[in-house]
Design goal:
Elements lengths: L3 E4 L3 E4 L2 E7 L7 E4 L5 E5 L5 H10 L1 H15 L12 E4 L2 E8 L6 E4 L2 E5 L6 H28 L6 E4 L6 E3 L5 E4 L7 H16 L5 H10 L3 H13 L5
Parallel strand pairs: 3-5, 7-9, 10-12
Antiparallel strand pairs: 1-2, 2-3, 4-5, 6-7, 8-9, 11-12
Helix pairs in contact: 3-4, 4-5
Length: about 240
């Protein structure tokens, strides 16, 4: 039998796999996920013991290794960016060239097809650009999500744009939705998929059959969009 030892801070080690474990009262079954950064997470219902979780991980080991290899290959595609005039950054699926300017009313602005970055912000350009994406998303995403919420009969609470690590989004049962600011680099059809996916979680916390049925009713071509998102996500800029 493989060694199974608990690790600190909500971690479980099974063989050569480290699993980040979170307990959620909304879960009725264990959800294993290979995240975009090739980490493995488990969201479990209250009361699931380490031995039970370890057995499940071992039974899913072949699937986990295949997903890890896929994520690691995709991560190798992630571009390195330089904060110099001419570098390209995506916004809603279109590439805009960076332009370093001496003076501007704000640190980052999109003006006449150029993404302008003020020179005095070059000491920490990633923070300023991420903040610009976040503010742009906070303006653009709530009105974009509202028609989807109505179509899905989902109560839409507050929509917040935040840094979420390697997750596209998250939601709460009362309809509050969080979306990663990096989503604003995606094309509009893929942004819509992220929104629909998170809105579906308001009614269905897991990725079971009813969850995907809810998405399919709202977005019949969701599978094609989901596949495109897997590839596109690996090419997004993340500081």
């Amino acid at each position: 039998m493989e060694p199974v030892t608990p690790a600190p801070a909500g971690r479980l080690r099974v063989g050569d796999l480290d699993i980040d474990v979170t307990v959620s009262p909304r879960r009725r079954t264990v959800r294993l996920t290979v995240e975009r950064d090739a980490s493995v997470t488990a969201v479990v219902p209250p009361g699931v013991d380490e031995d039970t979780l370890a057995r499940l991980v071992r039974s899913k080991r072949r699937w986990l290794y295949a997903k890890l290899a896929e994520k690691q290959a995709l991560a190798a595609e992630r571009p390195d960016k330089e904060f110099v005039s001419g570098e390209g950054f995506s916004y809603l699926g279109r590439s805009y060239r960076l332009l370093i300017v001496e003076e501007a009313p704000e640190p980052v602005q999109l003006v006449r097809g150029r993404l302008r970055l003020r020179r005095d912000c070059l000491h920490d350009p990633a923070r300023h650009l991420a903040h610009w994406y976040r503010r742009a998303g906070q303006r653009w995403l709530p009105p974009r999500a509202a028609p989807w919420a109505r179509r899905m009969a989902v109560p839409l609470g507050e929509l917040r744009v935040r840094p979420l690590g390697y997750r596209w989004g998250s939601c709460s049962p009362d309809g509050n939705v969080n979306i990663h600011w990096a989503t604003m680099q995606l094309s509009v059809d893929l942004v819509d998929y992220v929104l629909v996916h998170e809105l579906a979680h308001v009614h269905q916390p897991n990725h079971g059959r009813e969850f995907w049925r809810l998405i399919e009713r709202a977005m019949p071509d969701y599978e094609a969009r989901r596949d495109l998102l897997t590839r596109a996500g690996a090419r997004l800029w993340l500081p």
